């Protein structure tokens, strides 16, 4: 499997590029700025991270290894280890490497690695505290970041994540988030009036269902805020639609069918 083939399996490997290197994050937003007022933006499909690497003072054997690696995966992909952040990325060199003699049996080598979305990973990112962001139900402009159908109402509950969430007990009411990233953690409120919500995750570019349908029980005898009700960590970089549907079913101990749309924490 290509994701099992790691260019630099250890930090000390001669195929590990020199630090520092240029890294650019993917730009997957289309932004429109009107003559007056604030800019508007829309998420869209994009590429992954881009690394510009240099290998200095490498010997002839390492030069040949890198040449062979670039040719081997020109129409394929491999894994790159970012040892500074203990993360892996899946992709390939964006163009042939360049090789410059730097002395007797010494070469300076340069190349660009491009992360490719939609591919399996040797190891999925897991540092939520450092690499994840939250998508709330509303932004600071008062705009909905979640698409709602059915009878949802804004809770105005300051103890929810971000200070608000949406609630509904109407069967088949839905709430949807769109994001470009890896996996996610889904947050909600649990209580004795809460029912069962259905979770599905769809890959936007081809409509493939990658998670679910899965039923999540939001019942608890105590009122609990900021509860992680689902963790989906092993998702490749892609554009996803996360959808919740009020099922109109509940735990036998619950007194109602309420479901809450609060926030998702997206790995990037």
Distance between the termini: 24 Å
Instruction: Catalogue the unreliable spans.
Output: none
Largest sheet: 6 strands, antiparallel
The gross shape turns out to be: elongated
Quaternary form: single chain
Report the portion of residues in β strands: over 45%
SS summary, helix count: 2
The figure for the number of domains is 2
**CATH architecture classification name of the largest domain:** Sandwich
> What class would the helix/strand composition place it in?
mainly beta
> What's the total count of β strands?
20
Question: SSE order, as H and E?
Answer: EEEEHEEEEHEEEEEEEEEEEE
* CATH class category name of the largest domain: Mainly Beta
Helix share bin:
under 10%
Radius of gyration: 23 Å
CATH evolutionary superfamily of the largest domain: Galactose-binding domain-like
Describe this structure in words.
The chain is elongated, with a radius of gyration of 23 Å. The mean pLDDT is 91. The protein contains two helices and 20 strands. The chain folds into two domains: 2-115, Elongation Factor Tu (Ef-tu), domain 3 (Beta Barrel), CATH 2.40.30; 128-267, Galactose-binding domain-like (Jelly Rolls). The protein has helices spanning 60-72, 128-131, and strands spanning 22-24, 29-32, 40-43, 50-58, 78-82, 87-93, 98-103, 106-115, 132-135, 147-149, 153-154, 166-168, 174-181, 184-190, 196-203, 209-217, 224-232, 238-249, 259-261, 263-267. By secondary structure, it is mostly beta strands. The strands form five sheets. Strands 1, 4, 5, 6, 7 and 8 form a six-stranded antiparallel beta sheet that branches. Strands 10-13-18-15-16 form a five-stranded antiparallel beta sheet, with no helix packed on it. The longest helix is centred in the first third of the chain and has 13 residues, at 60-72.
């Amino acid at each position: 499997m290509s994701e099992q083939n790691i260019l630099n399996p250890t930090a000390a490997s001669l195929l590990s590029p020199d630090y520092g290197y240029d890294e650019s994050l993917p730009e997957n937003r289309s932004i429109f700025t009107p003559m007056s007022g604030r800019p508007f933006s829309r998420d869209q499909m994009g590429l992954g991270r881009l690394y510009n690497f240099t290998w200095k003072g490498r010997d002839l054997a390492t030069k040949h290894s890198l040449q062979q690696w670039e040719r081997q995966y020109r129409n394929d992909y491999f894994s790159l280890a970012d040892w500074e952040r203990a993360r892996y990325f899946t992709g390939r060199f964006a163009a042939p490497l360049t090789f410059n003699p730097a002395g007797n049996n010494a070469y300076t080598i340069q190349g660009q690695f491009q992360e490719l979305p939609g591919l399996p990973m040797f190891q999925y990112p897991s540092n939520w505290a450092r690499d994840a962001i939250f998508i709330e139900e509303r932004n600071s402009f008062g705009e909905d970041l979640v698409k709602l159908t059915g009878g949802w109402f804004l809770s105005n509950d300051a103890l929810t994540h971000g200070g608000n969430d949406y609630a509904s007990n109407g069967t088949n009411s839905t709430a949807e988030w769109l994001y470009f990233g890896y996996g996610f953690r889904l947050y909600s409120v649990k209580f004795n009036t809460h029912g069962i919500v259905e979770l599905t995750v769809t890959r936007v570019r081809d409509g493939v269902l990658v998670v679910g349908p899965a039923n999540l029980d939001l019942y608890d005898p105590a009122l609990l805020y900021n509860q992680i009700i689902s963790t989906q960590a092993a998702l490749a970089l892609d554009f996803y639609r996360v959808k919740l549907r009020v099922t109109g079913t509940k735990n036998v101990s619950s007194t109602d069918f309420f479901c809450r749309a609060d926030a998702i924490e997206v790995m990037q």
